[in-house]
Amino acid sequence: MDEPASPTVLVTNDDGIDASGLRLLVQALVSTGRCRVLVCAPASDQSGVGHGITWRHPISAKPVNIDGATAFAIAGTPADCTSLGISGTLFNGIIPDLVLSGINAGSNCGHGIVCSGTVAGAREAFMCGVPSIALSYGWVHKKSSIHDLKLAVESCLPIINSVLNEIRNRTFPLQFFLNIAVPTDVSNHKGYKLTKQGKSNIKIFWTQTSSGVSVDGDATANMYTHDTAGTTKISCSSPTQEQLWSRKIVRITENKSEKEEEGDDTDWQALQEGYISVTPLSALSCSEIDTVPYFRGWLPCVTDNSCSSSL
């Protein structure tokens, strides 16, 4: 009996084709000798682009030399890369059995999943019927190292190999894709934990970094007024010069009451406890069950109010 053909794995990411995480993941896959590795990743850093796609203009695909893999750098988003990579056109008719997106240097969990290009790379494959996994590591500046990133990749290999076996046996559920997040202290992780997407978020602050040249030489003026209650209000005049604002990501937070309501099975909570979070995701939004009755009663009132206001 002939040996079954080795599965084909497509690797993408959002940090760019030169990112250490992607290169370490490809190296680990190639070293196992268990699969054929294809790479279709952004030519530049596309972190935080979410599920953006390019459709107004063509995108370029440039061959890149990566040992043991056939690779292209794409002038597009992670979703573009996955879509092109699984289309069968870029790799001469080859359609991958599994898509891996990552490994990202920074954990993707909670509300952050929405804007994650890494997760979008896996989600795009899922929406096209190809099994996929998003991979991320809780990188901390001045604490984490490339060695930690390598350990994070290695910690994900058992799940990757298991998924490949499930795909070979045609038992992997196509209703979901997986989001794996590895804790910062990867060398002392406590193993895998099945989790659900939590409500943790990245706290954002904006700071003005510099201003452009004024059109008429005057800076934008702020006007302070007081209402009848003595409360100060601020209104801005029309800007007369360009302003530059920088996004500052401070930390990831989770509301205590939300955490208590959700229990300890959320992705962010698992990471804080030292587990590798494994979260099944889909492309459908899950409505908060508690809000459904509210909107069920609210929606008919919208029609009633609309009719009465038009009289």
Automatic annotation (TrEMBL):
Superkingdom classification of source: Eukaryota
Species for this entry: Dioscorea alata
Record keywords: Hydrolase
Name of the molecule in the record: 5'-nucleotidase protein
Record has Hydrolase as a keyword: yes
Enzyme Commission identifier(s): 3.1.3.5
Broad EC category: hydrolase
